[in-house]
Amino acid sequence: MKTKIWAHRGASVAAPENTLAAFDLAVQQGADGIELDVHFSADGVVVVTHDETCLRVTGEQGHVNQLTLSQLRQLDFSRILPGFSRQQIPTLAEVFDLIQPTSLVINIELKNSITLYPGLEQAVLDLACTHHMSERICLSSFIHYSLVQAALLAQERKLHVPCGLLYSCALYEPWMYARHVGAQALHPHYANLRIPGFVDACHEAGIQVNVWTIDDPDHLRMAFQLAPDAVITDVPDQAIALYKAVAGQS
């Protein structure tokens, strides 16, 4: 089974994270998918950025959910990578339009962990259907209640949208928990791969394993040898090259 390479916030070492430039570069580098994060703007648009505030990536104050799309568009989201051309915050619809002609999948993290966004699950599913991407997305969140809600909404619409449970610390038999809440995947921190038999136990239970976020070559090599379903990385080009090398040795 081939381990997929998903670009974390796009090719986010070489281009500003969570921008169209980063996602386009991930496509060019040969990634199998991209990972991104979504919030609501003040006027209810689903926008793509990681933090609840704009400060880290733009240098400007302001909460994403307190600024309209027009106000957010006035900020430069390339400030995190000095010297890069000015980048606006993308909407999820724009990312769908960019990725739709390709074969990539999109892992959408619902950022419900600090700021609660009632209706975010429904809005994401609506956009996925409108842009003919419902078969090429998976949803993830650290707030598992949000994923249960998303799964119920998808079921009502007869959509096949996998949900992946994000977590960091080691859990006991998390594949059983995933089945209990109706999730199709686990999205653990990559350190969980060191638990003996972890990937095999998940697969035997019918649960996929998509791990985050691995950039170190030694850690990538370890992951590829253990064969999770996907590895999420900031350096998709390097991960692809290393995967080919590891696969060639087996």
Task: Report a brief summary of the structure.
This protein has 250 residues and is an alpha/beta fold. 36% of the residues lie in helices and 18% in strands.
Care to describe what's here?
With 250 residues, this protein is of the alpha/beta class. It has 10 helices and 9 strands. It has helices spanning 20-29, 55-58, 69-73, 92-99, 120-130, 144-156, 174-181, 198-204, 217-226, 236-249; strands spanning 4-8, 33-40, 46-48, 105-110, 137-141, 163-167, 185-188, 208-211, 230-233. An 8-stranded parallel β-barrel has the order 1-2-4-5-6-7-8-9, surrounded by 7 helices. α6 (144-156) links the parallel β5 (137-141) and β6. The chain starts with a strand and ends with a helix.
Task: Give a quick set of tags describing it.
eight-stranded parallel β-barrel, 250 residues, alpha/beta
Low-pLDDT regions: none
Give me the count of strands: 9
Number of helices: 10
Estimated share of beta-strand residues = 15-25%
The assigned structural class equals alpha/beta
Strand line-up across the major sheet = 1-2-4-5-6-7-8-9
The major sheet is characterized as: 8 strands, parallel, barrel
In round numbers, the mean pLDDT is 97
Distance between the termini: 12 Å
Share of helix among residues? 25-40%
Q: What's the gyration radius in Å?
A: 17 Å
Dominant shape: globular
- The helix/strand series, from N terminus to C terminus, equals EHEEHHHEHEHEHEHEHEH
Topology:
Elements: E1 4-8, H1 20-29, E2 33-40, E3 46-48, H2 55-58, H3 69-73, H4 92-99, E4 105-110, H5 120-130, E5 137-141, H6 144-156, E6 163-167, H7 174-181, E7 185-188, H8 198-204, E8 208-211, H9 217-226, E9 230-233, H10 236-249
Parallel strand pairs: 1-2, 1-9, 2-4, 4-5, 5-6, 6-7, 7-8, 8-9
Antiparallel strand pairs: 2-3
